[in-house]
Design goal:
There is one protein chain. Helices cover 37% and strands 12% of the residues. It is built from eleven helices and ten strands. α5 runs parallel beside α6. The longest helix is centred in the last third of the chain and has 19 residues. The protein is globular and about 50 Å long.
């Protein structure tokens, strides 16, 4: 699989990575055997970038990745994790002592002396503008606790603030055919600054797979049940912030745009890969079949101008008004 450079860090990531939130929690039950099978299949399919966080299953996702990689010392996989959501979400908690403690825990979970890439995990907006926060992150690099750092953001404005900082290697942001606002300013600014873009929620929490109907019922412990209106965390993380009924209808239209040989999910992933400035896209997978199909999107041809235009027309007509003012 093709790899791209993660901005200023010089690190490389496969154009399709693997998001591992679902291997920790919040997507229904995924047992340990299935989780390891997902990681194995992704690696066999050419994936060299795993994205996790210290709060995914209270460390379970990090620990599962560590267990897998211990058994596969032949693999060269870059593991990006995140920090910051273990504490009350106030700017005062984003300080060096907490960073060290959170990093120590992630290093233990992942079984490494130095973390490849650490991202602030959608912190309060003022954190992105704090000189002290970036000084602390630079200190972690100097102390060789981390090799590089980036940020995960909710809004395009937060992304632009972070991109202006010289030490930021990457910005993780929601980007998919139902969330196009980052195309306007964020991706061009990142290209200009040499900052990597990690595209998350690429399938709009599964909507863009075309598998769901208005009658689909998700498990009680699945965020697609309990966070549809932002009850637990930012609403934009669930179905990209799109109203579910609207999303299901728009997803059916989207699925009809898939060229021969593409599944709807692969169409969404290929659309993201095609956007100038994207480094890697990180779909999740609950089983090996999904992991294999997601990785295969990297080998599909670039979308035609006609297909890209049809996707944009659908977004402008059905989705744009719901999401652009908020994120």
């Amino acid at each position: 699989m093709d790899e791209r450079v993660i901005g200023r860090s010089g690190q490389r990531a496969s154009v399709v990575g693997l998001g591992t939130w679902q291997l920790g929690a919040d997507w229904g039950e995924v047992d340990d055997k299935e989780a390891l099978a997902v990681l194995e299949t992704a690696a066999e399919s050419g994936v060299t970038f795993f994205d996790t966080a210290d709060v995914y299953g209270d460390g379970r996702s990090e620990q599962t990745i560590a267990a897998f990689l211990r058994g596969r010392p032949d693999l060269d996989v870059l593991v990006a994790t995140k920090m910051g959501r273990r504490a009350e979400q106030v700017p005062e908690n984003y300080v060096l002592d907490n960073f060290r403690a959170w990093n120590d825990r992630s290093r233990r979970n992942l079984g490494v002396g130095r973390l490849d890439l650490v991202q602030l995990h959608c912190p309060p907006t003022p954190v992105y503008s704090s000189d002290a926060v970036y000084d602390a992150l630079d200190t972690l690099v100097e102390e060789e606790r981390i090799a590089a750092y980036g940020v995960s953001v909710e809004t395009s404005a937060e992304a632009l603030t972070a991109i202006a900082r010289p030490g930021v290697a990457s910005v993780q942001i929601i980007l998919n055919p139902f969330r196009m606002k980052p195309l306007y300013e964020v991706l061009p600014a990142a290209r200009e600054a040499g900052v990597g873009i990690i595209a998350r929620v690429p399938l709009a929490s599964g909507l863009l797979s075309g598998k769901y109907t208005k009658d689909t019922v998700f498990a009680a412990d699945d965020h697609r049940t309990y966070n549809r209106h932002g009850e637990a965390f930012d609403q934009g993380e669930t179905f990209s912030g799109v109203d579910y009924a609207t999303g299901v209808e728009a997803a059916a239209e989207f699925a009809a745009l898939a060229p021969e040989g593409y599944t709807p999910a692969q169409l969404a992933l290929r659309w993201i890969i095609d956007q100038p400035g994207v480094t890697t896209v990180i779909p999740g997978a609950r089983n090996p079949e999904q992991a294999r199909a997601n990785a295969a999107a990297a080998e599909l041809p670039q979308l035609s101008a006609q297909t890209a235009a049809a996707i944009r027309e659908l977004y402008d007509r059905r989705i744009k008004e719901q999401v652009e003012s908020r994120w």
